[in-house]
Amino acid sequence: MHTVSKTSPSTSSFASRSKTHLPANTEQSVNAVGTIRGTTPDVYPAINRYKLSRSIRLYVITKHRFGRLLVESLHKWIVEDAKTTHRPAEVEAHSQIPAMGFYAKFGYTIEGAQFDDAGEPHQNMVVHLPIPN
Ligand SMILES: CC(C)(COP(=O)(O)OP(=O)(O)OC[C@H]1O[C@@H](n2cnc3c(N)ncnc32)[C@H](O)[C@@H]1OP(=O)(O)O)[C@@H](O)C(=O)NCCC(=O)NCCS
Fold first, then answer.
1. Rounded CA separation 38/20 (Å)
2. Which of 20, 45, 47, 128 is 20 to 30 A away from residue 93, measured at CA?
3. Cα of 99 from ligand 1 centre, angstroms
4. 2-129 in CATH: which number?
């Protein structure tokens, strides 16, 4: 069973961890598999956007929709905040190169040139989330 729990809810940041309990007879028997962090534009005024950061780190298990679960829960939090504060739900993420296709699944597009972060090439990616009435 997949679950997502907020670990540090506040007005300006969001952190979430996904957990699962796989059947005992599977080889993949970890139960804490991923985390995600998001912040409002107040936290990084220079970019004036929501930010997906401290991105997802999945331990052992991938391709089981944990990444999707985390990104969608963060996007939901962002859309609710954007609706309340009357600001655009524009989000940026600094993606490692192999993860770019993952973010693209959620509508993120490339912005600017690749850059180095702690010795790893990264790409800024941005999405503008629709805010329902
Ligand atoms: C990238 C990562 C977060 C994806 O998480 P995941 O749980 O495997 O992804 P999901 O199972 O939720 O996949 C959601 C969708 O994205 C696709 N996807 C996942 N990883 C992808 C990748 N690297 N490139 C392209 N598409 C990818 C899946 O096929 C799936 O597509 P679908 O919904 O059309 O079937 C995970 O592989 C990971 O943590 N990698 C190592 C750390 C890392 O790179 N973190 C991101 C740092 S910026």
1. 21
2. 20
3. 6
4. 3.40.630.30
CA angle 76, 32, 24 (to 5 degrees): 120
Q: Which atom of ligand 1 is nearest to the CA of 95?
A: 48
pLDDT tens digits along 3-45:
566 555 566 777 776 666 555 555 554 455 677 889 999 998 8
**80-104 as b/e, with b when 16 or more CB fall inside 10 Å?**
ebbeeeebebbbbbbbeeebbebbe
Residue 101: name the closest of 132, 63, 47, 51 by CA. Answer: 63
* Residue with CA nearest ligand 1 atom 44: 99
- For the cut 70, the answer to whether the pLDDT of residue 126 exceeds it is yes
- Amino acid 65: pLDDT: 76
State the pLDDT at residue 53: 83
Mutate to test the pocket of ligand 1, among 18, 91, 95, 102 (most ligand atoms within 8 A of CB): 102
Count of beta carbons in the 10 Å neighbourhood of residue 67: 22
Characterize the bridge pairing of strands 50-53 and 89-96: parallel
Name the residue ranges covered by the structural domains of the chain: 2-129
